[in-house]
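Bit of a strange request maybe. I'm writing a small parser for structure token strings and I need a real example to test against, not something I typed by hand. Could someone generate the tokens for this chain?
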Amino acid sequence: MDRKRLQNLAKTRIKDAKALLGRRRWSAAYYFCGYAIECALKSCLLRHLGESGAVFGDEKYLRRLTECWTHDLVKLVNLAGLDAEFGRARSDNAALLNFWNVAKEWEETSRYEEHTEVTARALYEAVTHNPDGVLRWIQSHW
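Reply from user aminoacidic:
Good idea to test on real output. This should exercise your parser:
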């Protein structure tokens, strides 16, 4: 899977989530919102690998690449080399920080859980808010 495909998946899953919210399918909408962030961060990870030289510059990083199979959004931020920059962005933007606090609670296993309208809409807002949503920030780095 290449960066462009992951980016397209992220965009498509957000559209799917919006459609599902309109159909009152809260749990599926919730899942797709988080999955969109996962795809977006994996696109950033591929960019980081290709442009940073991290694979050749840090032997420990190369060993950690087995973790790229994770669905953990916090770990993906780290693997994509975005910890410092994203940390600064959150420090400078309280809305982004609050939205990230909502988004990072998403887990792959949420597909097996029931979610309410409140939680689904909160995650959708955290991901898509203009200009402070998590996906918007990630898109500027993918």
